[in-house]
């Protein structure tokens, strides 16, 4: 029978139907409200009918299947949480979108812990504890609202399917395929953009032939790819893709003096892969994925990792020379990010991102005297203003106006703050 502690209900109609000798359902056809600090648990399949209004501001424990054809949401409590717990497959489906304030996935089944066949929305926090969420049928999708986040995603628990992120905050998409967590990351944006990402541990097939590519691309990773779309907005996002020795072919971990790793995108207009370039950084120990490639992409669609020709250093253009090493220790040598000649183009903008695609510096009218990057954060995202940035490789974007043209330069910047 259902384990029910205190709950508050208005016009509540809950029914338990026996569907055979040992199975049953818990069905709501009225209005059910779980108050803060109270609990509602069901060991049977939970179904919210089209006539049902289900508001969860407390703790809802679901130990079997979940189906929502009506209204499933919360009334405002930030602590309302739904727990999906089990040791055999749990189906999450229904005709209506389900809205969760907080959600936790904890299923220890060895087969398929969760099958997502509907759209669910997370408003605050998702905890990936155990169990892969299979949404690879193109029906299921997990949406994270503007201020929503997640934690503990790993090879043990992630979304095998589409993940959508609304809003301007930086975000790591908790996506993967098979039994491998392969996230991609986007930087914070200035507008209310919407992005959808899905990872595939498979070849793109004949629709995107790997032989059709720009001359600078040597070898494309044919074992995996990401599909990143922008559903709303116009910003160029800074995108980061991960490498994992469990899925990425060994050749992409070899080093060469003449080549480097980059992100490539299938361009439908030209029917070929184009080089979006990128910088590669080693990740902290403990991550299942071992390297990260970051670049600002020019458009959206199918992305893959590739070995590309290493660019020759460009001769100074328009009198501008970019020095990409910084050691702000006060010795008067390389204490700032020096862009020689930038002062002659005052209509400029300099942006710097860390390896996760988080913007750590942004300045207009950058110059060679009083507006220069000194290795400290300017307070964006989760990095405090004035905080000394850790030693490592960063990514810069420089835009400046020359006559009627806007010129963009990108590359890496190494900061030695030791």
From TrEMBL:
<dbReference type="InterPro" id="IPR026341">
    <property type="entry name" value="T9SS_type_B"/>
</dbReference>
<protein>
    <submittedName>
        <fullName>Gliding motility-associated C-terminal domain-containing protein</fullName>
    </submittedName>
</protein>
<keyword id="KW-0732">Signal</keyword>
<dbReference type="Pfam" id="PF13585">
    <property type="entry name" value="CHU_C"/>
</dbReference>
<feature type="signal peptide">
    <location>
        <begin position="1"/>
        <end position="24"/>
    </location>
</feature>
């Amino acid at each position: 029978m259902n384990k029910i502690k205190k709950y508050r209900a208005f016009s509540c109609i809950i029914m338990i139907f026996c569907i055979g000798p040992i199975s049953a359902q818990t069905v709501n056809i009225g209005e059910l409200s779980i108050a803060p600090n109270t609990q509602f648990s069901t060991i049977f399949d939970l179904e919210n009918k089209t006539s049902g209004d289900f508001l969860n501001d407390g703790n809802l424990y679901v130990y079997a299947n979940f189906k929502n054809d009506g209204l499933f949401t919360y009334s405002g409590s930030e602590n309302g949480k739904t727990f999906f717990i089990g040791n055999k497959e749990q189906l999450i489906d229904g005709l209506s979108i389900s809205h969760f304030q907080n959600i936790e996935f904890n299923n220890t089944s060895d087969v398929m812990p969760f099958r997502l066949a509907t759209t669910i929305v997370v408003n605050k926090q998702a905890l990936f504890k155990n169990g892969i969420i299979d949404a690879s049928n193109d029906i299921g999708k997990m949406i994270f609202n503007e201020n929503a986040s997640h934690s503990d995603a790993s090879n043990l628990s992630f979304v095998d399917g589409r993940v959508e992120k609304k809003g301007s905050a930086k975000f790591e998409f908790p996506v993967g395929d098979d039994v491998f967590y392969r996230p991609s990351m986007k930087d914070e944006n200035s507008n209310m953009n919407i992005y959808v990402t899905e990872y595939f541990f498979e070849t793109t097939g004949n629709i995107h032939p790997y032989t059709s590519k720009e001359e600078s691309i040597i070898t494309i990773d044919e074992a995996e790819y990401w599909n990143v779309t922008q559903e709303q907005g116009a910003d160029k996002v800074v995108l980061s893709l991960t490498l994992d020795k469990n899925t990425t072919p060994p050749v992409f971990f070899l080093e060469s003096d003449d080549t480097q790793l980059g992100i490539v995108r299938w361009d439908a207009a030209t029917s070929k892969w184009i080089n979006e370039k990128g910088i590669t950084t080693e990740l902290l120990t403990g991550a299942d994925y071992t390297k990260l490639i970051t670049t600002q992409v020019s458009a959206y669609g199918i992305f893959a990792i590739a070995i590309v020709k290493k660019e020759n250093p460009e001769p100074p253009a328009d009198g501008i020379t970019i020095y990409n090493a910084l050691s702000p220790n006060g010795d008067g040598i390389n204490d700032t990010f020096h862009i020689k000649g930038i002062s002659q183009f005052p209509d400029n903008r300099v942006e710097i991102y860390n390896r996760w695609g988080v913007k750590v510096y942004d300045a207009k009218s950058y110059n060679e005297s009083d507006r220069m990057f000194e290795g400290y954060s300017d307070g964006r995202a989760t990095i405090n203003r004035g905080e000394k940035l850790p030693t490592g490789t960063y990514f810069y974007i420089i835009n400046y106006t020359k006559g009627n043209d806007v010129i963009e330069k990108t590359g890496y910047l190494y900061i030695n703050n030791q």
